[in-house]
Amino acid sequence: MRGAAEDRATERPACELGAGVIKRPTTLADGRELIYYDDPGTALGPDRSVDARTLDPRPGTATMRLDVLTGDWITVAEGRQNRVMMPGADADPLAPQTPTNPSEVPSLYDVAVFENRSPAFGPALTESHGAAPAAANPPRGLDDLAALGLGRSRTAVGRCEVVCFSPDHSGSFGTQSVTRARTVIEAWADRTAALSQLPGIEQIFPFENRGEAIGVTLPHPHGQIYAYPYITPRTTRLLESIDRTAPELFQHILDLEQGSERVLLRGEHWTAFVPFAARWPLEVHLMPHRHVPDFAETTAAERDELAPLYLKLLRGVDALYETPTPYIAAWHQAPVNVGRDSVRLHLQVTSPRRAADKLKFLAGSEAAMWAWTAEVAPEQSAERLRDAIARVGEVA
Fold this sequence. Notes:
Elements: H1 4-10, E1 15-16, E2 22-27, E3 33-38, E4 63-67, E5 72-76, E6 111-115, H2 142-146, E7 153-155, E8 159-164, H3 178-195, E9 203-210, E10 222-228, H4 233-244, H5 249-258, E11 263-266, E12 270-273, E13 282-288, H6 300-319, E14 327-332, E15 346-351, E16 353-355, E17 358-359, H7 364-369, H8 378-392
Antiparallel strand pairs: 1-2, 2-3, 3-6, 4-5, 4-7, 6-8, 8-10, 9-10, 9-14, 11-12, 12-13, 13-15, 14-15, 16-17
């Protein structure tokens, strides 16, 4: 007679994605989804260990409260207070499980994606594996979320996933091989497509936080994907700018930047540049040459070029100084249901590092009034980054 653990390990078949990446979905002991993405030509076999841990039930979905002064929804997720803080290699929750480390990933892996145990959003309204508690008082569409009023709250339906770039304890996206970077890109595209189909989801956001100065709590090389039940404030402002200018705003920006001295890298499908009005001491945008709303709609050729180009960019950022640079790598995608013909997928890498031993802190004007002052001219930043990227050489 088969047990529940054996059933979890084989409940859904593997399938091949682009670039020869193999997707192997399963679930963890508490019902959360876990997906292995195997590199093309991986040395790993097809079998994966089951998660035999005894885990507490999943927490109830967090609550969102409306800030009526700004129209922003603030998630109150008290369970996140208990997150692990900078563990050693022997207690790394993102490493493959061992007899002494009951981590989140049962087997050795190339790339692994799983639902966050301490999410800011989710579970979503319904889950395919049926292990999620029911969400009361969910959002009732974008019009409901846009309405202002005192004391308004909704359940923070959605999804938060962890994307492990490697089984190694330390590193970042930029330290991976081109093959591994391509596997992660394929995973981003696959998860963007899947999460966009969940009920109540309005926007998908893949990102990487790197460095303790950014607030990273795990040194393991990983990123995250947030599936929001609303359109984020940043994207809302972007949609307003498009309405006030032109539907082709992103193409106009790309044309401007490609003719400037702020270009860092340019390929057949992508261009990286320091933007004309950069806020941060280090800020780089990376944009595809054609309009594409999200990773799910990129072509194989675009993904193939992105892997080495993105690695070279991040390694150039690290070559600026003798120590690794903290950053946020934010992949902005079009919302799921609106703006898909005008909002273009693009990356924004930002860092508060303004010198080898100095960080930019957001003080009164910037933190309180959102009125920015840049201490480094974008053209100067671009020149330094180009020199650093040139020192990197070819990536492998």
